[in-house]
Amino acid sequence: MNLPTKHRQVLLIDDDAKQLRVITLRLETEGYSVASAASGADALAQLRDVRPHLVLTDLRMPGIDGVELLAQVQNRMPGVPVVLLSAHGDIDDAVRALHGGAVDFLTKPVDRERLLECLQRYIPTQDPAPAVGSQWAADLVTRSPTMAAILEDARRVARTDATVLVTGASGSGKELMARAIHRGSARSTRPFVAINCSAVPAELLESELFGHRRGAFTGATANHSGLFRAAEGGSIFLDEIGDMPAELQVKLLRVLQEREVRPVGETQTVAVNVRVISATHCDLEARVQSGTFREDLFYRLNVVRLRLPALAERREDIPLLVTHCLSQLAAAGGPRHAYSPEALNLLVGAPWPGNVRQLMNVVEQTVALAPGRVISAALVRKCLGEASGELPSFDEARSAFTQNYLQQLLEVAGGNISYAARLAGRNRSDFYKLLNRYGITPGEFKRSFEIAQEAQG
User: Fold this and answer.
1) N or C: which terminus of the chain carries fewer CB neighbours within 10 A?
2) DSSP H helical segments within 389-441, as ranges?
3) Quick one: average pLDDT of 44-53?
């Protein structure tokens, strides 16, 4: 469930009364709820009654300083992010605090835009508490306008008994959406049963769904009620419905039409009261056109369709999803980890063909392999492999272009410095300085030119 800004609480600690007042007013103007404390001890006392979404604390304070307060917050509330405020002279200490588990630090005087960007990055737009009651969609963490619109549609359809088809690439959260719809419905107290239609052999899928009578086939040593009857009063989720065998599609159509199942080997049908939510990563319309999926079944399943975007279409959610996953890992008993800004930028820029599932796997992998509490860009690159999708900084891009340009000039000039400098419109002295700055040895190009000349004649 999306949290209004005013419900996102920040615990602010600073022994400087003026700073405390200025930052409090700034945050409250932006709609945040602020609990302020003038000391670490005061903050710890407030934590007995307040559970903030983020702690923003000064680094240098008498008594309990920011580093000690960080450790106390991690011990009491391992999922709550801590951001440090530091003077320019304290940056080394702030960096060491990052290794202790702080998620970020801001230098004083605090820049307004940098502060708000930090809060938006680390404060979830959804309450990460277990999804019950009004928290029906808490597992679908997002700040994406596209996802917000889909969740609003899901909230409306959850209140009905309409059949729902969820589409989207593998790993985009189709089962999470199905579970959210179930939790938001009047059926939430009844079972939610899921099956992947592509993971069960075709000859067994009918029995798994509809049940069988003892002796109906070899290996049927006992009666089996089937998943539709197991979901009585609740919801059944048919994942990868597009892979259902053609002979079973007509039987599923009959179940949807008649609201009854006939177990394998039985002559009598059994009435069922089940909501059907299906999902697929494939283009069902194309399969209907090719004749591999029944058109009448498609229309029965496609009463309401929810299309989930790929993670690359909602990159603004990546920092939030990462923070959510780190909080879950910390709540499970592990230490609180954080990504360096460069590492987080790598995650945001990666292509993510495996979508949210792949992102969560990479987060767990980097946490498991991290030697300290701050996860580096190098480790993220290692875990992403060739899929890092890293965007270079402006300075890095300019440096790479200049180096490549100088090398091309030397190749054209056959290693002749004077000629290459004239081509570049620089004097010889300046050109030498450029070569030294970028570690380029002109003799290598002269030798390559001579070898090429010898080979030609």
Assistant:
1) C
2) 394-412, 417-424, 428-437
3) 84
